[in-house]
Amino acid sequence: MSISRRTARSVRILGVASATAALALGVAGNAMACNISEFSAEAKCDGTKSVITVKDVDPSGVPAVVSVFLENNGADVKKIGEQEVKGSREGVTITFDEAWKPNAEYRIHVKAGNQVDEDIKPNLTTPATACKTETTPPATKTPKPSKKPSSSATPSATPSTSDSSTPPAASDNAPSPAVGESNLAETGANSNTGMIAGIAGGLVVIGGGAVFFGMRRRGASKAG
C-alpha cells in the first residue's frame, strides 16, 4: 500500500510540530526548575542588631533548606543556623541573627530537593563597618540622706534651768530635830554656849569674892 505525497507531507508536519512542542515543554520545565542563581545573601544591620538575610526568588516555590556557616581560612568554624524557605516570583527572605564582625566570611549552602545542592557563590563577606550599638546613658546616682543622731541616744549638752537653779527638796522621810535643839537653834544658844558658860563662871567667882569680902568687913567691924 503506497502512501500518497499529501499524506507524507501531513505526517512530516505533525512530527515537526510534536518536536517543537516537546522542546518548548523542556525549556519551560528548565525555566520553572529551582536554580542556585535564584538565591542571594546579604549581611546588614536591623536597627542596632546584626543579621544575615537570604532571599529566594524561585517562582516554582520548591522548598529549600538554607544553612549558614562562619568561615575561617576556607574551613567551617561553626554553624550559625538552618532554616527552610519556599520562594516566589516576588521573593521570600529569611533572617539569621548573627553578631557578625567586619570583613567576616560566611558560607551559605542551599539544598532544594534533587535540583539544588550547592553553595551560593561567592561566599558572603560582611561590611567593613560594624552595626552601631545603642548607647545607654549613665545612671544618675541618688544621694543618700545623712544619718542624724537619735535624740534619745545623745545626752543634752546644756542642763535645764530648773536643774541648775533649784536645790533638791528635802525628803519627807528625813528625821526631825529634837525639841531642845530646835529651841537652841531659834535663840542661837547652840552656837555661843561656851562663851556664855565662861561668863557665867566668871560672874559666880566675882559674886563669891564679893560675898567673901563683905563677910570679912562685917567681922572686922564687929571686932572694933
TrEMBL record:
Name this polypeptide is given: Secreted protein
Membrane-crossing segments per the record: 195-215
Keywords, comma-separated and alphabetical: Membrane, Signal, Transmembrane, Transmembrane helix
Signal sequence residues: 1-33
Origin: domain of life: Bacteria
UniProt feature, compositional bias: Low complexity: 125-178
Annotated segments matching region Disordered: 118-186
